[in-house]
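Run Glycogen operon protein GlgX homolog through structure prediction, thanks.
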Amino acid sequence: MATPQSMTSPAFLDTRFDDLGVTLGPDGGTLRVWSGQASSVELVVFDDTDLDWITAVEDLTNVGDGIWSVTTPRLTAGTRYALRVDGPTGARNLFNAQTLLLDPYAKGLVPVRRGEWRSIVVDPQTTVAPVRRPATPWDRTVIYEAHLKGLTKRHPSIPPALHGTYAGLGHPAMIEHLTGLGITAVELLPIHAFETEPRLLAHGLTNYWGYNTLNFFTPHGAYATAEARAAGPDAILREVQQMVAALHDAGIEVILDVVYNHTAELDIGQPRSSLRGIDNSGYYRQHDDGTYIDVTGCGNAVDTSTDAAARLVLDSVRYWAEVVGVDGFRFDLAATLGRDAQHTFHADHPLLRALVEDPRLQGVKMIAEPWDVGMGGWQTGGFGDGWSEWNDGYRDRVRNFWLSDIDYTRRAGSPPAGVGRFATRLAGSSNTFSEERGPLASVNFVTAHDGFTLRDLVSYDVKHNLGNGEQNRDGADTNRSFNHGAEGPTDDPAILANRRKAMRNLFGTLMLSAGVPMIAAGDEFGRTQRGNNNAYCHDSDLTWVHWQHAAWQEDLLAHARTLVRLRQENPALRPRRFAEEDRVVPSASVIHWYDRHGEAMSGERWSDATNRTLLYDARSTPEDEAPNRILLVVHGDESPVEVTLPRLDGVTGYTALWSSVPERPDHVPAHVHAPGDVIALPGTALQLFRVEPLVG
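Sure, done. The structure for Glycogen operon protein GlgX homolog is below.
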């Protein structure tokens, strides 16, 4: 594939783009702004308390290559300021010399009124130096995706003043839950400063998820404590850094869900708060007539084929990694970032390569949401070395196997598909990710913030989004869910039992699959959103995590903790590389497949749609851990089955480790079975064994 730009020295890495924004020095501060089309740029300084009172205006000088600069004693820590930019008229330009604009590189914002803000100079000397990162290897990483506010808003052991805040996430009670579950990384929905769209405000709703970024450097102020908000942006930043430090002290990494693909300026005619007024043609994808090329579905798309936009993204990532101390980034609609000037995606786009090759970002985890809504936008498996990706193919196949296939079988009398495609996902999705990238390129998930929760996935056949104000038109229509015989709440004990086992099968599959597992917060104890599969606009009891649990929820949590622990204890479940037939690959898992009779799977059995039972034998090829071998029994049919444990050379027994059948994991008998033993399983079940001896 031809590269869109030479990777030997991308132009956006030139020193001319260094030190954009405000840099403090002995003579005050220097402000540097990029605008390739501007005819003039002004610094506007405001009173500290009356943010409508302009106290000074200074011109910036064009120093070449689109960079405008001014050094002035008026720029000091705490200065409130804005930009005014003028330039030519034209289809692709939207300059207005009267509009007050945010500095794209501002490290702090202060509100004026709804929809209007001022930039503020943050003194880096008042912030907290990042602490040492946990640096968890990818193969040991277990991600916990969470909304910062919703996770802590109702936690009874967190002081009310800290509910829904950065400090709340860093509180010992929250960390106790995370470490008790065994996760190694928290992936936070956006905490960059964001705004609610006017359309939602008109309906009395809010942008809860935060995918509407106002500024790429400033933490979202509403997630700070009242004390920090009163003290100002420096204190808010310190609170974020202290949260990161507290999680690091507990061995937990922090990954940020970041939205660089579009901004809160929405489509033309909507707010002109920053990039649109500074250089519309330099920051947004457009047709020649000035209409936006919207590959994000959000009104605009940031044009990372331009040097200024690419450097803005890279500098923001560097800032959050180096100053705030975060350990990784999940890039929303990352395919947009990899589009060239002709709007075509390239895996070797200079920005995508810079993010994983930048010396300042080594060891930082990079995760792509590998799609957008433009032409050629679905790119799962299409990113390059150094990237991991959300694997929607894994999500869909696992849901099909345990839910929609079961629903279909009840209706039609026979299953629509056998176990083959499910097995491929279980073993690391080698059909999607190249041998060079290996199974750790796949971030596996069954649920995420977007869609049904785990509990709702087994409780609803259709979405229930009327509360979103769009007549139930929003949200996915194809969910691959199954209500097990009743839509939503029910008192039927059989239906409830089937739902609980389905959750255990789904969660068990996630934790026992090759790849990097991601848990959606609250799924470990069966959180519900009452069938809403697109709850982005609800900052309420609907979306906040509840911490008072019924007995069955505590049972599910016990299963979740057990599964995470077993994953860490058994390296055969978390290979770093794909195995090969003709040679030993270090840190791979050598896989063999058996049918329910304990015999090697035949081609006929692989292609048989009625064959829903499989034995997954994975043996590690260790580099730095003890040898390990597991056997996972998968039964994806509602009819009971008897499974014969395979007779294999050198294998003396199978130690039972976990089963999805009992309500609690401690009800699994700690028993060693002999090769050839017959195991009886009820309908739809997973059972995990350790193969003895460990070297097989």
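The CA atoms of residues 445 and 518 lie 5 Å apart.
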